[in-house]
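User: For documentation purposes, I need each entry recorded in a consistent format: the amino acid sequence on its own, followed directly by the corresponding structure tokens. There are two entries in this batch. Please keep commentary to a minimum and don't merge the entries.

Assistant: Recorded as requested. Entry 1:
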Amino acid sequence: YATCVAITDERNETVLLFSYDMASADPRFLVTLRTTVSQKTGVPENNIMLTASHSHSAPAVGSSKVAIQSKYDRQLAQWMMDIAIEAMADRKAAQMYIGSVEIVGQNFVRHYLLDDGTSVGYSSMVNNNAVAHQGIGDYTMQLLKFTRENDQDVLIGNWQCHPHRTGGSTKYDISADIVGVMRDTLEEKLDCEFMYVQGAAGNMNPTSLLPNEKVADSYVEQGQQIAQFVIDAGDDVYSQVQTGNVEVLRKDLDVTVDHSEDHLLPYAMQVQSVWNSTNDRVQAEELGKPLGIRSPYHAGRIVANNKLGKTDKMELN
């Protein structure tokens, strides 16, 4: 699914917020889409936010030259332009509220301390040796609620978790797994329109490898459980926002690049080569572990960092 929320203040300043169930998208696709949507709607490009739910059940948009993928990309872009126009036409007078709720036991730090004192990421290397999570995760779902005159509420939830649990090989609908169920449950139970915005999910998983942590048995059960936290919280968690103005912030940040593992570059390239040619994660990890490479992703980070300079730019919207 793709969702668009249009918000306009009393000065006629408008922002368009998009959320789409994709694993990722090529930056060139997003830049082109933002420009085209801006031209179609008159909303400035800087006022258009695009975010993916990082569904592991959907393609990486704009990154393939395969004909059927290119056709899908074009269709997706058209759909997203269509829903932007629909959202603009559907605006009504509204009050905005903010709130938050703690989602307990549904997302877990995917970095582990092992019984030998070492630490490792989420991988087959954990086995049964994990004794604790390394670090504290963010378990808060931040909420924006818009109550509209004579229409359904619009609810936006910002939470952080890799939604990579799927329904197996017989699940043919493209959704964000946990996110899709959470969305359906909230819209049904609260009679609202719900948009999911993925938070900083790089180190958060929906499942835990610690044996003492009970996790939902299926993505359906887990999506329903997450939604229930929001439903049970009720209206007491919200406070009305008094200001009526929309402000947009966009900055470029200089990020220091870590080159402390450059000495592992030859080994990282070996692991990455095996991973790329076989797609066998276990084989790549078995090769890398004696060489100091924890996983194919660790290898990829070393290779990527080596290609960068001392700093890299990151855009913040």
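Entry 2:
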Amino acid sequence: MLPFIKEENTLWDYLKTAGKPVVLYGTGDGADKVIARLEENGTAVSGIFASDEFVRGQQFHGFAVRKYSELLALRENVIVLIAFASELPEVLDRFYKLAQVHETYAPHVPVFSGDPTVAPEWIHKYETELQTVYDRLADAASRETFAAILNYKLSGKLSYLQECTTKREDDMKELFSFGEEETYVDAGAYDGDTVQEFLNLSGHRYKKIVALEPDPKNFRKLTEFVRQNGLNTVSCLQAGVWSECGILELNGNGGRQSTFRKSSGHKKVKTQPVNVVSVDSVLGNDHADYMKFDVEGVEKEALTGAARHLVPDANGVLPKLLVAAYHHDEDIFSLPLLLWKLQPVYKIYLRKHPYVPAWEINIFAK
């Protein structure tokens, strides 16, 4: 086992022998995945709870859904599994408050159903790659984050997420610097939130912004954001980002989870053909100073399609990259290895931003 891996077994192994009733906090797709994994594990569920404002006498998997406040007041010695995802500060506070009252875990389940997940055999399989990336990361904070994420995915312990979580805005300011004449490519622009982030960081001074978003509902929000803010020099493209140009089937009905990968839940989702482009084709002969890739599981393909522009500018400066590294468990090592293959001189930093479970893991490359 790698020296930075502290956990020898998985949460699922522990639950088999814990000898305590297991209850879930949360309903929906996340809870469906957790329950399915528990059934595979031979572990029974004893109750379902949800936030007070969402409890209306409904049932979920045959259980009457009870209130979070009832769970806090419960005197029975139970194990609580957090079964939904959130980045909201008030919800994260509920998670950590719950952990002070009951033995509480946030099980790691794959974003995309059927994906392999971190387990002792997974660690063993990718031991060389994991050690290589760990050793090459640019600072101690990155290595600590790398180790904490892997140990969390094995154990489901909230403490690992707490100890490595930092604020995105602080990391952006600490690790990146922005000039007044920069070109920004926003791959996965959603509703314009990361365009706004760039504007705030650059003081609203820039040369060019290209924002790409494939989902029709999200694209309408993006163009409305651009219109309302009078951003006449922002180019919005209704297209996904891929390794080459073409047409792919998009799964989703709006929101952040629209993807070219298979459905991430158990419910059927709408599919529709959409255009995909490579960053290289979009930029042509232009140089990008900053590129963000949060493209719901196709980051490898997107980076491959930007390879021709991962080169220094006239002053010898590489494009800054922000790359989401949490859609597949392998992303934590495969994306850094791909970046170093495409451009060996990149310094790569790893940061984890507020979210339970381990979403919002981001690579900063410069």
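Summary note for entry 2:
The chain has a mean pLDDT of 94.
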